[in-house]
Design goal:
98 residues, alpha+beta, four-stranded mixed β-sheet, 4 strands, 21% strand, flat
C-alpha cells in the first residue's frame, strides 16, 4: 500500500523527470511563514544559477515587516527575474515540487 508521502514523492519525481527531458532551467519557490525563497536551478540539476529571498537585507529593506506576504513575493519575483536576465536566462519551467 502506498502512503501519502510516497505518493507525493512519486509525483514530484515524475515532474522533475519531465522537466529534465526538456533540458530547461527550473524555477523553484519555497515559502515559510516568515520568508519566501526562489531559485533557478540549472537544466542538469547540479547547481543553483540564481536565487533571491526575503532573508536578504536588500529585500527586507524593500518589504516592510512580514517577509511571507504578497508584497514580499512580488519583490522576490522581480529580483530573481532581474538576476536571471543579467545572467542571460530567458526561459524557465516552474517546478511546483508537488
Amino acid at each position: 500500500m502506498i502512503n501519502k508521502k510516497e505518493n507525493r514523492l512519486r509525483r514530484a519525481g515524475a515532474t522533475r523527470a519531465r522537466i529534465k527531458l526538456q533540458k530547461v532551467n527550473r524555477l523553484t519557490v519555497h515559502r515559510t511563514n516568515l520568508h519566501i525563497y526562489a531559485s533557478i536551478i540549472s537544466a542538469s540539476g547540479d547547481r543553483v544559477l540564481v536565487s533571491a529571498s526575503t532573508a536578504e537585507a536588500e529585500v527586507r529593506a524593500m518589504v516592510n515587516g512580514n517577509g511571507g506576504n504578497i508584497a514580499a513575493a512580488t519583490a522576490v519575483g522581480k529580483l530573481v527575474a532581474e538576476r536571471a536576465k543579467a545572467k542571460g536566462i530567458e526561459t524557465v519551467v516552474f517546478d511546483r515540487r508537488c
